[in-house]
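Sorry, any thoughts here?
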Amino acid sequence: MKKSHLLRKGRISIANHYYSITLVADSRRCLFNDLSLNRLLINEMRRLEEEGACKSIVFIFMPDHIHWLFQLKTHA
């Protein structure tokens, strides 16, 4: 079993609960210094909100990772 699958083993997602996640670039490459890439990611985060999947509370882009605090929603 892949390591990423082991990290999710036994975890559940609950609507209206808050989640704090960290997304790390492969090999910790400094990908998030690129403004155009960051804009694409923000547009995807907005799309998730528009679809009713989540509500972003706060996020921050660091050179090699992203921190994102959001509230999980149910699809409308």
